[in-house]
Amino acid sequence: MLPVSILVIEDSSVLREEIGDILRLEGYEVWEAENGRVGLELAKLRHPNMILCDVVMPEMDGLSLLRAVRQYPETETIPLIFLTAQADKRDIRRGMELGADDYLTKPFTAGELLGAVRARLQKQLRLVAHRRPIVPTDAIPYDPVTGLPNAQALESSLATAIAQTGVGLAVVDFGNFDALGGALGSDVEQRLLPQIAQRLRAGLPESTLVARTRDSEFALLVPGSPVDNLEVVARACLRLLTAAFSLNGRDVVLHGHIGLAVAPHHASRPEELLRCARLAVQAARQEGRNTVCWFSTALQARTTELVEFDGELYRAIAQNELLLYFQPIVRLSTGRCESFEALVRWQHPTQGLLSPNRFIPAAENSGAILALTEWVLARAVLSARRSPVPIAVNLSSYDCQREGMVEIVTKLLHDRQVSPQSLQVEITESAIIKQLETTMANLQQLRNLGVRVAIDDFGTGYSSLSYLKYLPVDKLKIDRSFVKDLEVDSNDTAILPAILEMARRLSLETIAEGVETEEQEAFLQEHRCDCAQGYLYSPPLPLDSAVRLL
């Protein structure tokens, strides 16, 4: 049996959350809206069993909402209880004349709230017993969390639009959604996704159909001939989503990625168009935070290549087609190289020397990443015997969640008679958060061995002091996206010093990635960054060439 659903419309976020918590504890399903306009849309989409609504609200007050609710056949019979801070008899009387069912005067107790809700629901059950059967809400093609059309509804709308005039499709995903869930708890989906839905519905053109298609993925259907207009809508969507959301009393910032495709140019069937847009999302992820990418035939070819790589990677490992290159990490105060980062390359038999971004995604998708990491670790430990400085190795989230990873490292160091201080590991912050407990345990054991640990690409995942101060790490590697535009982007010149100061307060060493100009180096020195890495100093090189730089 489906739970009784209640829509709470209240502009005070504190009171709205308190009411929601009281009702959820009683087993009710609760949806929340911050004003009457958003509440009306939710009521029309979700058809709740009851509405609790404040009278005085911005954009659309309670009386206006009540008039609108009673005008729609699908919402006209929903019981509505007003919440009012002023026991003004005129407002109450007007509400009752318009069709309100009851009212509560603020402040009210939890008992008063639950008593009014139960009484109204019991009366409603008696009334509907003599009417037509109620259609179960799960028969409606809407997503229960956000109230948006679901994947089935989207595909149906796409089919109609493709047949009539053509259509543009934007698929929206978030690079740090899983990390948020790991850091802030399992209720992130229930609290954050409805906020995303409300913001998209309110901020995009009315002609745009917004749907939730799976997990943290949303889709925007833009009808007509939208080749030019589609990207305008997508950019507007990014602007809406990059503003902070409020979650559990803190501000949360999402990293959006949007893929674009149009029909019939890219595909003539709904499922094909979705596949094209999702491929473009993957390309947007590789370009960085808050990016928009179009589907293209080149992107399709790249995807086909990755599929082919799935089967070839194991052969490449077995036949020693992989190579390790080493890029120096330089201490800014002395200009001396103090460590190398080991970077894997693939000497492909037909495509030549391939960089990691060409095949690491395929390795992660196929599961070959574990074998690949073992190969890299083994070669890095061997190389450490010939290197006068420590060597850093990248670990994926799969590696850090793997049982026995610490034992693998321990055995390699012991068998090669290499000091643990000669090895460092790097892992991205988003990878840490995916399985926080297991990953932290593995990283702590590595540190106990004497292996130093760095957070890689810092700033691209879920950067939060709430977890950072507890992580067993020694260094922060600041992502190149904060460095590359230092000369032209005032935001980066403000954010980077703040990251450096934060790291100092946490006693973490800092390494800036992607340093290419002397101006960038001077800025980092001025703001007391410890180390830097990038083409200003050297590209990745074979070990012998890298050692000669010392």
Task: List the defining traits of the structure above.
550 residues; 8-stranded mixed beta barrel; 5-stranded parallel β-sheet; 21 helices; 46% helix
Explain what this protein looks like in three dimensions.
- This protein has 550 residues and is α/β, with parallel strands linked by helices.
- It is built from 21 helices and 21 strands.
- The strands form four sheets. An eight-stranded mixed beta barrel has the order 13-14-16-17-18-19-20-21.
- Helix 3 links the parallel strand 3 and strand 4.
- The N and C termini lie far apart (71 Å).
- Residues 129-140 have low confidence and may be disordered.
The percent range for helix content is 40-55%
Low-confidence region ranges: 129-140
Structural class: alpha/beta
What proportion of the residues form beta strands (DSSP E)? 15-25%
The end-to-end distance, rounded to whole angstroms, is: 71 Å
Let me know the number of strands: 21
What's the SSE blueprint?
Layout: E1 5-9, H1 13-25, E2 29-33, H2 36-46, E3 50-54, H3 62-71, E4 80-84, H4 89-98, E5 102-105, H5 110-128, H6 151-164, E6 167-174, H7 177-184, H8 188-203, E7 209-214, E8 217-223, H9 227-242, E9 245-247, E10 250-252, E11 256-263, H10 270-287, E12 291-294, H11 297-318, E13 322-331, E14 337-348, E15 352-354, H12 356-366, H13 369-384, E16 391-394, H14 397-400, H15 405-416, E17 423-428, H16 429-434, H17 436-449, E18 452-458, H18 465-468, E19 475-478, H19 490-505, E20 509-512, H20 518-526, E21 531-532, H21 543-548
Parallel strand pairs: 1-2, 1-3, 3-4, 4-5, 11-12, 14-16, 16-17, 17-18, 18-19, 19-20, 20-21
Antiparallel strand pairs: 6-8, 6-11, 7-8, 9-10, 13-14, 13-21, 14-15
Helix pairs in contact: 2-3, 3-4, 8-9, 11-12, 13-15, 15-17
